[in-house]
Design a protein that fits this description.
The protein is mainly beta and 171 residues long. The chain contains no helices and 13 strands.
Amino acid sequence: MNQPKMPAQTLLETFTSGSMLNWRIINDGVMGGRSNSQIEILPGDIGRFRGNVSLDNFGGFASTRAILPVQLKDGYTKVLLKVKGDGKKYSFRIRTDVNFDGVSYKQDFTTKAGEWQEIELVLANFIPTWRGRRLRNVPPIAATKIRQIGFFISDKQEGGFELLVDWVGLK
C-alpha cells in the first residue's frame, strides 16, 4: 500500500515513475574496492537502495546520488526523510556542485530494522568533508547551494544492506 507523502514545503524526491531523479551509483570501485549497489523503484513508489559493502581491496563504501534539476530557494533549514532501514548507519550527503568529486556535506542517521522513520536533519549540522576527511573553514551549507543529494553507507559495515526511501524533502 502506498504511504502518504509528506506535507513538506518542497519534496525533492518521491520515487514515482517518470518523475524520479536521475540517481547514479558511485561505489568504492572508483578506487579499486569491490562493493556494489543499485537503486530502483518498488511498487507503491518506494525507492530501494541496496547492495553489499565489501572491505576487499581497501574498499568499504557504496553510494547513490542525484543532481537536482532546479536551484532551490532560500529559507529551508532542514532535510526531511522517510526511510525504512536495516538497523545500519547511513549518511545523507549534499553537494554544492554537479561534479563527480569535491566537497560533500554529510549527516549520519541510524535506521531501526524494519521500521519506517521520519528523519529530520538540520542543515546547520551538516559536516563538510572531502574523501572522508572533515574540512575546516568551509561555510555551512545553504539551501540555495544544494545541487546534489545522496545516500552513503560506509564505516566498515561489511555485508548486505537495504534502505527503503519513501520521500526526501526540505522544510
